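Q: Okay, next protein. This is Tropomyosin from Hanusia phi. I've checked the sequence twice, so it should be correct. Can you predict the 3D structure?
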Amino acid sequence: EDLEGQLAEASRKETGLREALSMLEQEMTDLRAERDALAEQAAAEETATTSLEERYEEAARSAEELRAKLAEVESTVATKDGRMDELGRLVEDLEGQLAEASRKETGLREALSMLEQEMTDLRAERDALAEQAAAEETATTSLEERYEEAARSAEELRAKLAEVESTVATKDGRMDELGRLVEDLEGQL
């Protein structure tokens, strides 16, 4: 009966870790979507520079900055892919040892809950930025006004992008903390 209880507990732990992997996969999907959106925005700004030399030069600089930001996001995605692979291997190693890990479950679930809330906030911010960009595009009625508004919008979007990158860096730190927690758990097991 004790072994059956330990096996049931191990199964529940395995399910929880697999759910964590699933949520991280969803996070990767969201990051890729953000990367694609940035790429589409950079392409749109490049094709929009058809008149006025100053407008073309400004759009070219903006597109270059967006490409640099896109490269950083892609690097972050690649790093998270590697971390997900490492976490998957760790889950496989821990499947036979989870019977001793019940007192660690609460902390791991709280960490996952915080990550879920953070992803919800990021999605809300992404949607707000998309709505703001659409509203600003439809609000401009002439080339000069549209150019000036687009320049301000691009500056604001770059600032928002910096905030998102800071959030991603924070998440990386939290992922590292979670990794250390799992390593500590392995040592105790």
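A: Here is a summary of the prediction. Residues 2-188 form one domain. The mean pLDDT is 80.
Q: Noted. On to the next one.
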